[in-house]
Amino acid sequence: MASAPREQWTSRTGFLLAAVGSAVGLGNMWRFSYLTAEHGGGAFVLLYLALTLLIGLPVLLAELVLGRGAGRSPVEALAHYGGRSWRPLGWLFVAAGLLILGYYSVIAGWTLRYALTAVIGGFPEDPGAFFGEISSGPAALVWHLLFMGITVAVVAGGVKGGIERTSLVLMPLLFALVIGLAVYAAALDGAASGYEFYLAIDFSQIWSFETLHAAAGQAFFSLSLGMGAMLTYASYLSRREHLPNASLVIAGADFAVAFVAGLAVFPLIFALGLSGDVGESTVGALFITLPKTFAGMGAAGRVVGLLFFVALAVGALTSAISLLEVVVASVMDGLGWERRRAALLVGPAIALVGIPAALSLDVLGTMDQIAGNVLLVLGGLFLAVFVGWVMRDPMAEVQPGAEGVGWFALWRWLLRIPVPIILVIVLWQSLQALLGE
């Protein structure tokens, strides 16, 4: 029985928007804002940009090369180029995507709940107490399951009818919302203080291992690297796609959304004199301080807050779609299942994985530490080694559609030497932090 032909993107724009949607998500507005607050403002932003260029772009291009060349999901793509002994790396990607989606869906559920709150009655006067009520327990579980249901429905619709169609609508909406919020925030009294906090560079923080670790982890988490999402999306590409240009567009858009989101978040917080609350916890800036800001702005705050949490929910959905697609595509390739069956069985299984995170913030934090700071970095490290040292001729695989590009030798050198060294350091720091906690 012949297998069905592999699905394809119908346009380059569709692929790029879907790939950017995978990269742009809660990591750009949730993770980026609190890590910037905790690690020296502009120092963290500068180091994050440098590491995105130094390690994020090379690993991103490596994933695109593997996916397009093999035309398969992570497990089979690694086996295609490295033999069966490299299949475990593909399974590491699948495990990372599965674990991240499990708790990511819980956080995404919070964004839906906050958006509904803005519509129904406005933001509460005590956002800390409100967050405590909805962030764990039965309420968090219901919204987690609802968000997972939406994600499954999109992925079950296929590459063209589900993922690409959704991305063509949601990504332009997200860009418009984030830019609009930044423009609004710029007009607020006190915005200058927010910009100063956000953009002022404390150079002593740049040389901190903690800042390096946080920036590298953010680069990987935000770009959806080390989990096979970009590899899987690239497997639906034609051989003539210009992969270096695609990687630059994806990384550039990802950084731009995070940076512009910061131009909205920090002026909003400082305009209401709530800067002391911004670094209280990993969720403080986004789910406690900002709702407090919106509540203090009256009717305008209700509208701005609604738009902000809608933007968060949109970004969360496009990223969650790519995470689920990694697992679904792997099941389809490995077991020969058709898409709808794979999505309807894999989705609920991942929802079950997320239940402990929905019931406990401590569990959610631990899952984030393991997946975001260990598994992703480990996956990226092995991927760099594979393409840099093991893969027979990666330059021949990257060149179709990009003939004439002269820096592919630099790309492979980065994968061979600097990227593994940096990722080993980051991985060591992550393991020490995890074991210490």
Structure in a nutshell:
The chain is mainly alpha-helical. 80% of the residues lie in helices and 0% in strands. It has a single domain, classed as Hydantoin permease.
Description:
- The protein has 437 residues and is mainly alpha-helical.
- The chain has one domain (16-436): Hydantoin permease.
- It is built from 20 helices and no strands.
- Helix 1 (12-23) crosses helix 8 (159-186), helix 3 packs antiparallel against helix 13 (243-271) and helix 8 runs parallel beside helix 13.
- The longest helix has 38 residues, at 298-335.
- The model has no long low-confidence stretch (mean pLDDT 90).
Label this structure with key terms:
Hydantoin permease, 20 helices, 437 residues, globular, mainly alpha, single chain
- For the record, give the distance between the C-alpha atoms at the N and C termini, rounded to a whole number: 52 Å
Structural class: mainly alpha
Helix count, DSSP H or I runs of 4 or more residues: 20
* Alpha-carbon Rg, integer: 21 Å
Mean pLDDT: 90
* Name of the CATH superfamily: Hydantoin permease
- Anisotropy-based shape: globular
